[in-house]
Amino acid sequence: METNLDEFLDVENELNQRWPETKLEPSLDRISALAHVLGDPQTSYPVVQLTGTNGKTSTSRMVDALFTRIGLRTGRFTSPHLQLATERISIDNQPISPERYVEVYRDIEPYLAMVDSQSEIRLSKFEVLTGMAYAAFAEAPADVAVVEVGMGGTWDATSIVDTRVAVLTPIGVDHTEYLGNRPEDIAVEKSGIIKPGSVAIVGEQTPEVMRVILERVAEVDAMVARFGSEFGVLSRSVAVGGQMITLQGLGGVYEDIFLPLHGQHQAANAALALAAVEAFFGAGPERKIDIEMVREGFASVVTPGRLERVRSAPNVFVDAAHNPHGAAALARALESEFGFRKLVAVVAVMSDKDAEGILAALEPVVQELVITTNSSPRAMDPDVLAGLAVPIFGEDRFEVRPRLVDAIEEAIHLIEDEQSGGGIIVTGSVVTAGEARALFGKEPA
Questions:
Q1: Residue 264, class by beta-carbon neighbours within 10 Å (0-12 exposed, 13-18 middle, 19+ buried)?
Q2: Which of 95, 157, 175, 213 is deepest in the core (most CB within 10 A)?
Q3: Adjacency order of strands within the sheet including 165-168
Q4: CA–CA gap between residue 315 and residue 422 (Å, rounded)
Q5: Domain named Mur ligase C-terminal: which ranges (predicted)?
Q6: Contact present, 280 and 48 (Cβ < 8 Å)
Q7: CB 81, CB 125: distance < 8 Å
Q8: C-alpha torsion sign, points 311, 314, 320, 325
Q9: Do 63 and 48 form a contact (C-beta atoms < 8 A)?
Q10: How many angstroms separate the Cα of 390 from the Cα of each of 370, 383, 386?
């Protein structure tokens, strides 16, 4: 096993010599060239592709769980990972093993050099990972691939597929340096995943964003179904370990579904996932998917790092919220579903994110804040974050602990006097959530 781990780390090191996922050159030329020399594996299975600002990974996992329960062999590609790169490429709703990850990389490695030599810019890390995923799915072989974009849509490396169902989760502002400052500008890029003849499953959007999406639908002659119109959440109630929901699907009403996830946003993600799977099978009025399969599929959903409880007594949750939209959804869920007498947030963010927006979204539901950092080179210095926190939280409601493990210990200390009424949320970035999971002994999933 040690040899395998060494080999895995060697591959990760080789991938890290390439452009990181934060450095982009908008073009599908390189990934198209790689796919071509690999035999265009992405054409050998139908694809459900997802974009949006938040909710992509949770919705991808739900779509995967439903397909798996129905009996299809799935491939799933998501990013970024929480703890281990193998989480990004799943077959049959399970991450591939480190051994298989190495094997897929070594299989395509000779072709990487070939493509690199033909371009001024080498393949990026994300482009190589996309090639690995598409090759692994073809070899499985997958009946369907569930593919989350890395960033954007039109020129994202994943978009060389001929998407059958395009899912657009709510679109807000993130990655402004690449995608623009206005949601409607971002929507132009993201709506590029809607391909001619596909079905667009569209989450809740502002009118400006919806207009852009519908223009794209008309332009490519796609079909469309919208949250709140053709499908949606009819009811939801808090349940132990999650929520009970009733969904309006494209084929009818689906009642008494237990979703083992917290928050209104996850119920909305479930409605999107169900509609996407219905659209894949051509469901329409009076043509429903078997309700028991739907119930069993949703009951099996696991979404690590999404308001995930990693400890009880005291209650410690981790959440990968890394922008104001995600932090606001997290705050609403914490307030509406838990009712802690005292909530302490442990926050570490990336330096290129809207840290003030994240803190402002959390402030109304958080009594005290512990500022820290994570191991990423892009992490914001905790003293800089502390400076941003002063006008939002005031001088007396936050502490600074540069190491994440110390910050969590401090948070536990701050709620010790609350008996069972206290809670801790560790959030601010995907890296923060992943490192917190590891500290609490959670395995990659």
A1: middle
A2: 157
A3: 94-95, 89-91, 74-77, 144-148, 47-51, 165-168, 199-202, 223-226
A4: 7
A5: 305-429
A6: yes
A7: no
A8: positive
A9: yes
A10: 12, 11, 6
Cβ atoms of 196 and 220 closer than 8 Å = yes
- As a whole number of angstroms, the longest Cα–Cα distance in the chain is 64
Residue 425 backbone dihedrals phi, psi, to 5 degrees: -120, 125
Q: Tell me what the mean pLDDT of segment 31-46 comes to.
A: 98
- Rounded to the nearest 5°, which phi and psi values hold at 122? -70, 160
200's tokens: 């667009």
What tens digit of pLDDT does each residue of 421-443 get?
A: 899 999 999 999 999 999 999 99
Find out whether 220 and 209 touch, Cβ atoms under 8 Å: no
225, 275 contact by CB (below 8 A)? yes
Rounded to the nearest 5 percent, the helix, strand and coil shares of the chain are 45, 20, 35
Which neighbouring-strand residues pair with 342?
422
pLDDT for 134-151, tens place per residue?
999 999 999 999 999 998
Q: What pTM was estimated for this model as a whole?
A: 0.96
How far does Cα 37 stand from its chain's mean position? 29
Asked if residues 51 and 121 have their Cβ atoms less than 8 Å apart, the reply is no
- The Cα 125–Cα 127 span in angstroms is 5
Per-residue pLDDT tens over the stretch 254-293:
999 999 999 999 999 999 999 999 999 997 777 899 999 9
- Coil, helix or strand at residue 225: strand
Q: Which two tokens stand for residue 59?
A: 């919705």
In the numeric block, which tokens belong to residue 256? 């008494």
Beta bridge partners of 400: 371
pLDDT score for 175: 47
* Residue 107 dihedral angles phi and psi, to the nearest 5°: -60, -40
Neighbours of 10 (CB within 10 A): 12
* Cα distance between residue 276 and residue 223, in whole Å: 12
On the question of pLDDT at 176 being above 60, the answer is no
Q: Which amino acid is at 350?
A: M
Of 441, 411, 416, the closest CA to residue 427 belongs to 411
Cα within 13 Å of Cα(1), Cβ side: 1
Lowest mean pLDDT among 10-24, 93-107, 172-186, 354-368: 172-186
CA 202 vs. chain centroid, Å, equals 16
Nearest to 295 by CA among 326, 254, 325: 254
Write down the mean pLDDT value for the chain: 94
